[in-house]
Amino acid sequence: MYKILTLNNISVKGLSRLPREQYEISSDTTRPDGILLRSFKMHDMEIPDSVAAIGRAGAGVNNIPVDQMTKRGVPVFNAPGANANAVKELVLAGLLIASRNIYPAMRFAGTLEGSDAEISAAVESGKKQFVGSELPSKKLGIIGLGAIGIRVANAASALGMKVIGYDPLISVENAWKLSRKVQQALSLDHLFSQCDAVSVHVPLLDATRGLVSKERIAMMPDGGTIVNLARGGICDDEAVLAALDSGKLNAYVIDFPTAALLKHPKVVSFPHLGASTEEAEENCAIMVADQLREYLEDGTVRNS
Ligand code: MLT
User: Where does the signal sequence lie (predicted)?
Assistant: First the structure.
């Protein structure tokens, strides 16, 4: 019998890949063989010696001490691409919320009171402050042309946006096999200098920390939008805030709110919602449960 410790809620469909005759699944930390989790931060946790493999039901693994586990010979599995469609949808929602002032407009509508005639009059005079702009008038820069970036490129292009992409690891030819919609940027600086909106789809690594910097924001046309549903730290938040205050940037769409950003009127803030759809949760859980099972039962390592 294998013992699996779950540190977050994991989709039932994923857990059903681990047959109950062979797997005991619980939050009991005593001598687990494997761990399944989503965003639980494992860095401060004492990870039992019995753990042979870890499965993250998501793409990022920065909540897991991967180096420490590698030294121990413990593979860390993840689910790249399994939630890409969900993230893509929220990127588009963020772009639309920002460009059409949807959030402040909805808040305004929610405060209206009185008779239908009074509400109608208030709507007509109030709506002027929420005049937006349309996506086809904008160029979107996508940093990171993996499963999410390519989907965002195709969807934004279908909505009429011009799309330019940059990825240091994916060749022009390979990106083009996935999307003929993406024009290739020559460099990151080239991308920033061209784009009204920039969306980042890279993991948080030493090489990507602060990638959206003061200098690069300064290269953008005035009134731009930055979308970061990937990880906090990829953008220099202080630089973004200064640019929002000066009017250089018009909006900042994030999935990892912080105290400094949360209340800013130009910040569109989601509570780490990018991968939170039933479909994505199922896809991710199935992908990592299968990997965990294959590893525990016959030592097969797929995508660690
Ligand atoms: C991811 O890394 O794919 C997401 O953080 C997954 C999640 O929301 O749990």
Answer: none
Q: Where are the domains of the chain?
A: 2-82+278-298, 84-269
| CA–CA gap between residue 77 and residue 121 (Å, rounded) | 57
Rg (CA), the chain: 22
- CA-nearest of 83, 54, 79 to 67 is 54
CA 294 to ligand 1 center in whole angstroms: 22
Nearest CA to ligand 1 atom 4: 58
CA of 221 to the centre of ligand 1 (A): 31
How sure is the predictor about 168, in pLDDT bands with cuts at 50, 70 and 90? confident
Q: H or E segment at 77?
A: strand 76-77
Dist. CA 7 → ligand 1 center (Å)? 14
User: Does residue 303 surpass a pLDDT of 90?
Assistant: no
- Report which secondary-structure segment, H or E, holds 254: strand 249-254
What pTM was computed for the model?
Answer: 0.94
**Contact call for residues 158 and 182 (beta carbons, < 8 A):** no
Distance 270 CA to ligand 1 centre (A): 13
> Which CATH topology does 84-269 take?
Rossmann fold (3.40.50)
The amino acid present at 240, given as its one-letter code, is V
Q: Name every protein residue with a CB atom under 6 angstroms from any ligand 1 atom.
A: 38-39, 58-60, 83, 272, 275
